[in-house]
Design goal:
This protein is an all-alpha fold and 290 residues long. It is built from 11 helices and 2 strands; from the N terminus they run ααααααααααββα.
């Protein structure tokens, strides 16, 4: 057991940090109905990071990080401007276009890089198993600052995510607050992709939030449920990656194992919600009969 602790201690702490900020932002994203904005912004960050390869900068370097951040800001500007009162073109269409074009551009860039396939795999699956204490502290500080900013302006951010009509009636500058939301969101996505990969980032953002929304309407309760699900699922996924053996291979990729575990947890949550709904009807019928 001590060996497992030594292998996964920083990795698990990184997962806890990811859970904390991503679950909160995920509630916004699901409420807005722009589920794939995370994938799109993450892909913009990946494209920017990959461009750094053309300047002989390795993935994970400071240049790679800031290039990814620059393109994430460009994506933030696009998404904030594309949210209009009369949405003749749905914002999800814009998000999908940005994702497709940035993905294709990333493949073109990596086709010119050495070991392009391995770099694509690293961007998708991430390298969270290899994160160290410095990496955990770095993202914790970034996310703490962003979390504080969102806490101070929480009423405005929640209003434009959950009730855009009321926000307009109050005279809020929707595009400005949208841009601030996507900028802070971009910081989180760019930092997370560097250590966890696109698939883990998407899972931490969406799945705990969706599971929480199944069971409660209150924001605080959703956060508590989402954080609990993220914490437990991270632990199970990492332990599974260590102990599960498929064929002759001992152990599984940590990132993919956590993502798959999230999928199983979501199915379980949906079934639990269905059972609870049936039992509620059964209880009401029993009360009527009595």
């Amino acid at each position: 057991m001590l060996e497992v602790y030594e292998i996964f201690k920083w990795c698990f702490l990184a997962c806890l940090v990811l859970t904390g900020i991503h679950c909160y932002l995920g509630l916004h994203i699901v409420s807005r109905g722009v589920i794939f904005v995370d994938l799109s912004l993450a892909q913009m960050a990946v494209f920017g990071s990959c461009l750094a390869l053309l300047f002989d900068c390795e993935l994970g370097s400071s240049t790679s990080y800031f290039m990814g951040l620059l393109f994430t800001f460009i994506g933030a500007a696009i998404f904030s401007l594309s949210r209009m009162r009369d949405e003749r073109i749905p914002q999800e269409a814009i998000i999908g276009i940005v994702y497709a074009v940035s993905s294709a551009a990333t493949i073109l860039v990596l086709s010119q890089a050495h070991h392009g396939f391995e770099k694509i795999k690293a961007m998708l699956d991430g390298g969270i198993l290899y994160v160290d204490g410095h990496g955990v502290l770095k993202i914790f500080i970034i996310y703490a600052v962003i979390g504080l900013f969102h806490f101070i302006f929480r009423k405005r951010f929640l209003l434009i995510s959950t009730n855009i009509s009321e926000a307009r009636d109050r005279g809020m500058k929707i595009r400005l607050w949208d841009f601030l939301f996507y900028i802070t969101f971009g910081f989180v996505v760019t930092s997370s992709v560097q250590i966890a990969g696109v698939l883990m980032v998407f899972s931490y953002l969406v799945i705990p939030a969706v599971c929480a929304i199944l069971f409660t309407d209150k924001i605080l309760n959703r956060l508590i449920i989402g954080w609990a699900i993220g914490t437990v699922t991270s632990a199970i996924g990492l332990l599974a990656s260590y102990y599960v053996t498929i064929g002759e291979t001992q152990g599984l990729p940590s990132g993919s194992s956590v993502v798959t575990t999230f999928g199983v947890v979501l199915i379980f949550a949906a079934l639990l919600r269905l059972v609870m709904k049936k039992l509620k009807w059964l209880w009401m019928l029993l009360k009527i009969a009595m």
